[in-house]
């Protein structure tokens, strides 16, 4: 794998850390600024909405800029946002810092996915995308628990200063290791927007919202579910989230490996199994060991869908994939926000802390239905599927030897 992928993974690690670490530090931040914890929750919501808005906005602004330079500018924005968060004299300023940092998120992963795919042979594209996303998944195993620990013992401002430092390392890595890639000739904003006329691009994005909604319906409320239902101590939640992160790392790498060989079967298996596991979580949440295993499985199955979904968007956004790729990252965050809201509704309705798992199972099942629909649509569009498969087979054969 090219070293440039490592630089992208470091940037992804910093972004993943800043996105999720705030959840563990809300009480400290709320206490410092003298606001309630639900008000401090605006730091999570503001970030998610910033990703949804920033992904297309920053990508459109960057269509005229070479991709390497745009990645460097985005890391600069990320550093500035985290420094502002670390130094914020008032809560409103910290919200602004979070939003500034979030503007870089979607476009970084969107443009980064395109760059990662261009750095390797065609049959290794999904693996390269997974390699970059490994930074995001490893952030949940190392960056978030460590950041939470630093925040609780030394101060949350130090956490955000350290994250800004990670951004500086990522920026230096991109500057040194990512090659200057020529901008695709003749690709203008209208070409990028044309990708959204493709039904497969839209279906893949809908699968992203629903599939990831399934994961985060359960994970958003994991702390009260594990302490009130499974009987874990408050301090154990961090380690359960590390388990979730380890599942994410494994699932992402497996998803990347198999998406290059059998993309749609990979989606069927991961989304179908995710729906089943989320439904079972309503039962396994009552047993400590079963709950811990289920949490790791949800992380693995959820993230096994990331490389295939991102690659499907790239494949169908013919020749102008950058905006579609970035908007798909926004779709992940839209799924997070939507499912957190739906999960909150069923808990508020008095259905108990395990009720969001049913919401998650329904969302994952809906994503599976869309995957089947998308594949059926594709088969109808290519009646000469057999001939196409025959012509592709020789090129695919060597991959089995390489792996």
TrEMBL record:
<feature type="transmembrane region" description="Helical">
    <location>
        <begin position="42"/>
        <end position="61"/>
    </location>
</feature>
<keyword id="KW-1133">Transmembrane helix</keyword>
<keyword id="KW-0472">Membrane</keyword>
<feature type="transmembrane region" description="Helical">
    <location>
        <begin position="289"/>
        <end position="309"/>
    </location>
</feature>
<feature type="domain" description="Major facilitator superfamily (MFS) profile">
    <location>
        <begin position="4"/>
        <end position="379"/>
    </location>
</feature>
<feature type="transmembrane region" description="Helical">
    <location>
        <begin position="128"/>
        <end position="150"/>
    </location>
</feature>
<feature type="transmembrane region" description="Helical">
    <location>
        <begin position="102"/>
        <end position="121"/>
    </location>
</feature>
<dbReference type="InterPro" id="IPR011701">
    <property type="entry name" value="MFS"/>
</dbReference>
<dbReference type="InterPro" id="IPR036259">
    <property type="entry name" value="MFS_trans_sf"/>
</dbReference>
<feature type="transmembrane region" description="Helical">
    <location>
        <begin position="358"/>
        <end position="377"/>
    </location>
</feature>
<dbReference type="InterPro" id="IPR050189">
    <property type="entry name" value="MFS_Efflux_Transporters"/>
</dbReference>
<dbReference type="Pfam" id="PF07690">
    <property type="entry name" value="MFS_1"/>
</dbReference>
<protein>
    <submittedName>
        <fullName>MFS transporter</fullName>
    </submittedName>
</protein>
<dbReference type="InterPro" id="IPR020846">
    <property type="entry name" value="MFS_dom"/>
</dbReference>
<keyword id="KW-0812">Transmembrane</keyword>
<feature type="transmembrane region" description="Helical">
    <location>
        <begin position="199"/>
        <end position="224"/>
    </location>
</feature>
<feature type="transmembrane region" description="Helical">
    <location>
        <begin position="330"/>
        <end position="352"/>
    </location>
</feature>
<feature type="transmembrane region" description="Helical">
    <location>
        <begin position="266"/>
        <end position="283"/>
    </location>
</feature>
<feature type="transmembrane region" description="Helical">
    <location>
        <begin position="156"/>
        <end position="178"/>
    </location>
</feature>
<feature type="transmembrane region" description="Helical">
    <location>
        <begin position="236"/>
        <end position="254"/>
    </location>
</feature>
<keyword id="KW-1003">Cell membrane</keyword>
<feature type="transmembrane region" description="Helical">
    <location>
        <begin position="73"/>
        <end position="96"/>
    </location>
</feature>
